[in-house]
Design goal:
The protein is an alpha/beta fold. Strand 3, helix 7 and strand 4 form a beta-alpha-beta unit. The strands form five sheets. It has a 16-stranded parallel β-sheet with strand order 3-4-6-8-9-11-13-14-15-17-19-20-21-22-23-24, with helices on both faces. Strands 1-2 form a two-stranded antiparallel ribbon. The protein has 15 helices and 24 strands. The longest helix has 20 residues.
Length: 520
């Protein structure tokens, strides 16, 4: 089955096996034996236990890589060396299971993976029969009410994401519950004593419940809690009660658009905190400045996702060696009081978003030309998004990003070119052949002044997706007749495509099969 690379191929093979079982009974036994051999060949009991655990989820379940790692950690499968080490170990185990053809995903970088039904059947045959009742998993079931409390009280894991549950009532006695996932529901209210009898709970995911504004008092009695995700909820305050969660290692506050207050000394009191996600909140620049001081004092903090709004805040972050070394995702917004936005080199930063910087005309980087040529600037930065920067014209920074894979530029009405031009770019045109060499996805939207992606052809050896929308002045694309377009898909309006101009008439013949009209 290792040759089956897509879900459709696996499903077809399974259907054939089922429909003609009387012909292929020996072959089916052989397949199961091969899968069992793959399982037996796994490196160590820890990896085998993690694999068996996944079979307890429903058929065709879409696993989220990070959530799986948190659950494995709560179950005690991973080495107790902190959240950072557990995450690294979890990624290693998932990679090993993929290489053994026991898990499948669209790509190595994809965060979602599945276990095929045949593989799951083999895994279940190994699991003890009394385990199934301890795992209550009902995602995408359109539930408007939670399952009956008796089912909760025997469970070690309860996963109810992507339902329509609005309210949680009662006081379930869940002494053995380790993980509770209620993400992506319609929760508005949780009874004050709901978490009263969950002493072992380590992972609680309430994310994507946008109308959940108040947290119940009993949540702050979860003294074993290590993972708390409140991203995309409606919470307005991080109150002093959070100080009681002393074992907390991960706190997710991303896209908490109503969060206006973080009580001083709350974050700094969480001495075991290793990961903090805080972007797109309603916090003022002053509040974020004060928060940066608190983050400096957290000795165990290793992974930071942060928004900075204002020039002083960015300068303060850039001046901190510690915070620079742990900032993996950075969101920059607000007026700068200057036409230039300068970024300090950061070789752990993976994602950069610049949005709403109304007075910025250029974005530059603090890297020497030699460092740029050696590709040691922003070494890990792979995703860049630039939105709603009205005066931005110069994107010289792109010349310094050797490993960028995804680039999205939207609602920047002054941009005329993407690479190879501008004050800094003009002096580096000869090096632009290497710019965007690793680019896989390029999205250009609402750029009324854009004339060129680049003034000359670029190889784009890895580009698979180019999307263009509302860029009326973009008449030329940076491809020549030597370009290998077999993996490329171009999406845009038919009128825009038909109006493109070509220096070499062989190019449209190459690119026409790649074009897909934009779906409205």
């Amino acid at each position: 089955m290792a040759s089956k690379k897509t879900l459709n191929e696996w499903n077809y093979a399974l259907r054939v096996l089922k429909e003609f079982a009387w012909k292929f009974s020996k072959m089916e036994d052989k397949v199961l034996n091969l899968l069992r051999f793959s399982y037996d060949s796994l490196d160590g009991e820890m990896t085998k236990a993690c694999f068996r655990y996944l079979s307890l989820f429903p058929e065709d379940y879409n696993f989220d890589k990070q959530k799986v790692i948190y659950i494995w950690m709560a179950e005690g499968f991973l080495t107790d060396g902190g959240l950072y080490m557990a995450t690294q170990e979890g990624h290693h185990i998932i990679g090993e299971l993929k290489r053994a053809c026991l898990l499948e995903a669209e790509s190595d970088e994809c965060d979602i993976f599945r276990m095929h039904d045949v593989v799951r059947d083999m895994a279940l045959s190994i699991c003890s029969k009394d385990q199934n009742d301890k795992y209550l998993v009902q995602d995408w079931h359109r539930l408007t009410e939670p399952p009956p409390i008796p089912k909760w009280e025997i469970a070690k894991l309860i996963s109810l994401p992507h339902n329509k549950i609005e309210q949680l009532e009662g006081e379930p006695n869940c002494e053995n519950l380790l993980t509770l996932d209620l993400a992506s529901n319609f929760l508005r209210e949780i009874a004050n004593d709901f978490f009263q009898y969950m002493p072992s709970l380590k992972v609680l995911d309430l994310s994507r419940n946008r109308e959940l504004q108040e947290l119940p008092k009993s949540l702050f009695k979860l003294t074993s809690l290590q993972i708390l995700d409140l991203s995309r909820t409606g919470i307005t305050e991080l109150s002093p009660k959070f100080k009681k969660l002393q074992k907390l290692k991960f706190l997710g506050l991303s896209s908490t658009f109503r969060l206006e207050v973080i009580t001083p000394q709350v974050v700094s009191s969480l001495s075991n905190l290793e990961q903090l996600g805080l972007d797109f909140s309603a916090l003022s620049a002053t509040s974020i400045n004060e928060l940066l001081d608190e983050l400096e004092s957290l000795k165990n903090l290793k992974h930071l996702k942060l928004v900075v709004n204002g020039k002083i805040t960015l300068e303060k972050l850039s001046a901190s060696e510690k915070l620079n070394e742990i900032t993996y995702q950075l969101y920059i917004t607000g007026r700068r009081g200057s036409s230039s936005l300068q970024l300090k080199n950061n070789n752990v930063l993976q994602r950069l978003t610049i949005y709403g910087c109304e007075d910025v005309e250029e974005v530059t980087v603090c890297c020497t030309r030699n460092d740029i040529l050696r590709k040691v600037c922003f070494r890990d930065l792979s995703r860049v998004s630039i939105f709603e920067c009205e005066l931005l014209k110069d994107l010289t920074l792109l010349m310094a990003l050797p490993n960028i894979r995804d680039l999205w530029i939207d609602h920047c009405p002054s941009i005329e070119n993407i690479v190879g031009v501008g004050g800094g770019g003009a002096s580096m045109v000869s090096g632009s052949i290497h710019a965007l060499a690793n680019l896989e996805t390029l999205i250009l939207r609402n750029l009324p002044a854009l004339k060129y992606i680049c003034s000359h052809a670029l190889p784009f050896p890895r580009l698979t997706i180019l999307r263009v929308h509302k860029c009326p002045e973009l008449k030329r694309l940076p491809f020549d007749s030597n370009y290998d377009a077999r993996k490329l898909t171009i999406r845009g309006d038919r009128e825009w495509w038909d109006g493109l101009e070509w220096d070499d008439e062989a190019v449209p013949a190459t690119l026409n099969p790649c074009f897909r009209p934009r779906n409205y």
